[in-house]
Amino acid sequence: MTALVLDAGALVAVDRGDREVVALLAAARHAGLPLRTNANVVAQVWRDDRGRQVNLGRFLRSVDVRAVDAAIGRAAGVLLSTTGGRDVVDATVALLAEAGDQIVTSDRSDLAPLVGSLGRRVEIIDC
Question: Which of 50, 54, 85, 105 meets the CB 3.0–4.6 Å disulfide criterion with 7?
Fold first, then answer.
């Protein structure tokens, strides 16, 4: 495995203090594995304007949060068209994952067809 790619479900789990997910991500960081997500995923879960998402805010400091540019937006649209998917954020997460990565998600049923369509060896971990 080269990195853990985090979907919204993983970030929600961190925000809620889910011990199993927090332990998984802490072990990955301790092993030196990069944690990645994108700005759309953060937008999907961030609702804090008063300091209530402290755990998530702290955690995001250790995550490589990538931008979603026009090229990724187009690729996500094509991927959704190819697979019949509907969730743009899931498509951008699938595109973010490289061969050998693992995606941590609560949305396996939507992500698996997207990742499968890309032909990359990416493992999906349920949270």
Answer: 105
**Residue 68 zone, left/alpha/beta (φ > 0; ψ -120 to 50; rest):** beta
- CATH fold, domain 4-120, is Rossmann fold (3.40.50)
- For residue 45, pLDDT over 80 is answered with yes
Q: How far apart are the first and last CA of the chain?
A: 18
pTM comes to 0.94
Round to whole Å and give the CA distance between 7 and 59: 14
d(CA 62, CA 92): 20
In our burial notation (b when 16+ CB lie closer than 10 A, e otherwise), range 14-34 reads: bbeebeebeebbeebeeeebe
Euclidean distance between CA atoms 115 and 94, whole angstroms: 5
Q: pLDDT tens digits for 71-104?
A: 999 999 999 999 999 999 999 999 999 999 999 9
Residue 48: what pLDDT? Answer: 86
- Residue-range domain boundaries for the chain: 4-120
